[in-house]
């Protein structure tokens, strides 16, 4: 986001200045998205799970094992289907600039190694505030708890939660190795990160400034994705160096997980919208071909 602010300042000759507040300094993702809609804050970079109940098509990203690789996810997000999802935010007074990054989510807990579906049962795990995420984890036998991310560390520290799921880079950045012992490599969900503007802020810009902000957003997308991939390759090693024990869930066990959540995916296809889901899967198939 600091890179984006610098690029905007350069591209607009200093006429648009952006102050960056990181690490949830001005609230949780949910609160920031509400503030973005009202125009109280001008820009947001983060996940869109908190508004997926309103924009149901966004729940496509909660479908487990949707994407196979980071490259595939990036290509599909930059496709017309991905742009459609950003454009649809207009009815919430939000202007979607770009899908800026994202990462695969994995599981951690403080109780025992998780190498199978059976090992998951009974764990009390924080999940994103998304209906499909809740339903998916419950289908796996876990006690799924929706919670703002700002509250997670304390809940893990006090053992109010056994675990949570997040990309490894974020686990390391937030020092989860202090309160979690076991890692499981599942890559079960890819959570994209969006760079958004409030309608109020975007509409206040001249056409030239709008073009400059969009161009800066696209440069930031490239910068962020490259940085995330570079960091991801080291994050797991760093977590293990801090004492966490990692388990890679084997293909047969991942198949068992997929089978357990099939009913959830089938049910939520109706919620998301059958036509859109089919179009999105067609975009993925086009990439793979």
UniProtKB/TrEMBL annotation:
It comes from the Bacteria. Keywords: Signal, Transport. SUPFAM superfamilies: Periplasmic binding protein-like II. Pfam families: DctP (PF03480). This is C4-dicarboxylate ABC transporter. Belongs to the bacterial solute-binding protein 7 family. It comes from Agrobacterium arsenijevicii.
